[in-house]
Structure formats: C-alpha cells, structure tokens
C-alpha cells in the first residue's frame, strides 16, 4: 500500500522522505506542515508509509490505520499540485444537492434523510444514493447505518479528461490546427447556440475537463472550416458517445457535448430526439431540475470562476429547456422538462453578474418564448374542437397579443452593440416562426369552415402568410448578406422548410381571388431564399446545399401541379358537353411523381406564375365539384410524396441529400 500524502506531522508519524533519504532525524514544527529541515532548506516535505516487505501483522495494521486518518485530513500532493484550484470534478455522478460553487455533497445519508423522516413513500424510504444518480440493486438493498454520524462535507476528488481519448494525443490533428478550430467554433458557431461561456471555456479548460466535449467542438468546427478532418473527428465523437452511454458518465461537459453533436448533424442522422432525451435524464440525475437562480442561492465562494461554473450549469439546463420545447413543436411529441424556479426567472437571468453579453440575453428571450408557446399552443389546439367562430377570433387575437408583447419586450434590447447580428437574426426568426405556428390553427379552422360556405378569416390568413414570408425574407435579406448561413444549426433549416411548405400548401388551398397577390410574393420569397442558400454552400452535402435544392424543387412541383390543374379544368369543360366520352384521370399520387431529373431545371420567372391558370374557377372553396385543391390539401400521402420528391423527409423533419433522392 503506497498512499502518499503531505500534511501536518504527528508524533506517531515516521520521518519524511527527504529526511529519510539522508538518514537524519525528522523534527516536526509546531504550526507548520513541513518539518524543520525541509522548511529551512525550502524542500518538499512528503510523508509516506515505509515499503518494507513483510507479512501483515498487528503492528503494521495499526500504523496503516493511523496514517489513513492522517490521509483523510489532507489532500494528496499529486492532486493538489496537478490541477488549478478553479477546476472541479469531471465525468462524475453527483447528487441533487450540488453546492453553488460547484462542490458536491457526497456525504452518506443521515437518519433524517432515510429512515428518520416521516414519509412512507418509496422516494423517502430508500437510500439517498439509490434515488439520486446511483440507482443500483446494491444501493437499494443496503441497510443504512442509522447510528453512524454524518461526516463533514468533503470536496469531491478531482479528475482530468482521459488523455487516451484526447484527439490531439491520438494524433488525429495537430495542436495548432485544434487550437484554430476551437477558436473558429467560439467565434462563429457558438453565437448561434448560446451554450458556452467564452471567458470560462478556454481551450485548456475544455481539454482538461472533457475529451468528449473537446472532440464534439472540433468535429462541429471542422465540418465548416476543415472538411477533410470532419469524418475522423465525427467518428471519434461517435466512439466517445458510445463510451459515455456504456459507462453511465454524467457531467455538465457530457451534456454539452451531446447537444453540440446534434446541432450540426449528418444528412442521415435521426437520433436527435433520443439523444436530447438521454441528456435530459442525465441532468435530472444530476439534480438540475431543482436548480435555483444564482441570485437566490447562498454561496460558499464568490470568486468569478465559481460563479461562471454555476452559471454554466444553469445555462446548459436552459438550453436543454429550449431545445426540448422546440423539438416538441417540430415533431409533435411531448416535452420532458417542466417549468421550475430557474426557468420561471429566466427573464432576469441574463442580467446577473458574469453573464455572457448577447448570448445569455438570447437564451433568456428564447426561454420566455417557449413558455408562451407552451401556454398558447394548448389554447390554440382547442380550436380543433371549437366550432364557434367568435370564440376562435377572440382566441386568435389573444395569441397574437402575447407574441406582440414578447416582441415589444425583447426585440428592442437586441439593438445593443454587444449583441451580434446572428443573435438578432435568431430572435426575429424564431418569433416569426411561433407566430406562424400559432395562427396556423386559426387558419386551418377557417379553411375547414370555408368548405361549408363560410368566409376565410382574413386576419389569420394575413398573420400566417406575413410570418412565413417574413421568415424567408430574414434568410435572404438579414443573415444572407452576412455570409453566415453556412454556420446556422439544423433547426433553422427545418423552420425554413416549414415556412416554404406552408406557403405552397396555402396557395393550393386558397381560391383565386385570395391567391393572386399572395402567389407572387410567396414564390419570390422562396426562390430568393433558395438562391441565397446556394451561394453559401461549400459542398453538395451541406445543409445550405440541400436547402437550396429543396426550395427550388418545391416551386417547380407547384408549377407542375398548377399546369396539370389547368389542363384538367379545360378537359372537364370540353367533356362536359360529351358525356359518353370517357375521361382519363390520373390518380393523385401519379400527379406527384413527375420526373425527378427535371428538378434541376431553372424555374420560370416569377411573373409567369401569376396568371398561368388556377386550381379553382370560383372565389370560394365550397361546392360539390372536386378539384385538386380540396383533394391535395387533406391528403397526407400526397404531401409526403411531393415533399420527398422535393427533398424533405416529412416524418423525420429533415432535408434529404441527393444520394437519398436517387434511390
């Protein structure tokens, strides 16, 4: 047993290593950790058990027990000298009572926390370790020592990142290249996700804390700045993700690495929902669902590094909250994170000490936006069951008032010089997306009522069309000129695709008098966005390239459908005077499956779309005559066929690459 330590010397302790090497007497000082000789000569004073080979006996056991008490009272010299004081534990399971400074309460449960409480439920009776982060059969079936006093708080052991997993140590890339990729990520990519604190997450800090996080950052950065390295780094990130899952590692850095892994996905990646859910479960085991705002917690330490590390945890939980609610909106699945005190106070969170300029304000705005969406969507979805038009209009006004209030409170704050252009774009873009989504319920109800002869709600129509066109205009006029579309996360691409699909589907459903003016604006916005994306794509497998192809293909599909509808309407007029002549009609799905090779032809000019034919001959979508608009609007299979041909996987909510389209 070689347990080395340095600390105050006791009379029962043997000589230090320095005095023992020269065979001199080791004299302890009264109030110093070093002996007299080491203090006088400024030498390192380390006490260690002797290493004589002998069988274990009574005397040696007593010595070991005495020294172990000494060891527990002072940290090892290797631990205290190898890491800075500001670095805390990494990849370690922690309980819910995480201290504000980053320290963790790892003490054994006392009687008041296990058998001594008044609760009779499972969560109160089972051992504390079994409930928080260590749910194993061994911990569940262990009997707590109710007579054993609870020891004092001890600082968790300090661990560094596994050097064997470090991509630099593994010779995947050189140190200068890694440093450059890391810097590019913090400057160009991090502003879009608002996840890392540039003052805290330096290259050395991240490299020491977690090889998984470092590799995820370098992999995401290499996709944009060094594509040749991306396959290697992406594969290494996959391997580390598998190790994290297999070993059950839980830490702030692990959660951040998983999130970064999902922001800039490969074209065939479909695990985002599962990975985000796993990260949320990990955070719940770490006790983050009980987090309090920084300003409401007493702190044992007030130094800047401790506060930044505490805010790092809070920031990650808020990012997860926004991500969870966004995926719930996109995939129509339930969210996992409920509202807690930290989320409720998010509107003030960005104003606290050591907040990241711009980034934390974006995050606070997004949390408030997602809180609005949760409340409003529950009300908006009730329109499906509500048949009263007056009630629907009142609810629609209420929804838009809430969003307008959010825009009034937040958009003006992003005119500050400390806020970057990408962050201003994100706030406007996400706000327009939510307005489109909420008003789509009212418009859908109005279109359904219009089939029975009712008028279409002009307010809902205007709100939806203006929001969708506004999202596309933000792409081509705001973020496009900055040449930063290449850096946006995948959620921006999904929302852009939704806006374009919505406009095309709306044009198909509307009668002629409402479609004429909207058609030109919608098609122009889609084509301008397609051109903007195509100008900023480096390769054909990037999100920008796939988005550009999809938007152009979508307009071409609409043009083909419109031409087919015009021919069919003319044929219907001719054959109406010749009832004995059979009418040849293609099925709806056959109308969708046009030659995919024609998708790469240049679309016709915008002006040719305005009066080249209509889906309907009347100013209302009511009536007994079946036309393409009514069939097409409500047939999910037709829509999936059209969108798949255009390059969008409807069930997974992601763009398809050319390789996927060919097979």
TrEMBL record:
Keywords: DNA-binding, Metal-binding, Nucleus, Transcription, Transcription regulation. PROSITE patterns: ZN2_CY6_FUNGAL_1, ZN2_CY6_FUNGAL_2. One of its GO terms (cellular component) is nucleus. GO terms for molecular function: DNA-binding transcription factor activity, RNA polymerase II-specific; transcription cis-regulatory region binding; zinc ion binding. It holds the Pfam family Fungal_trans. Residues 15-47 form the Zn(2)-C6 fungal-type domain. It is found in: Nucleus. One of its GO terms (biological process) is DNA-templated transcription. Its main location: nucleus. It comes from the Eukaryota. The keyword Ligase does not apply. PANTHER family: FINGER DOMAIN PROTEIN, PUTATIVE-RELATED, ZN(II)2CYS6 TRANSCRIPTION FACTOR (EUROFUNG). This is Zn(2)-C6 fungal-type domain-containing protein. It comes from Monilinia laxa.
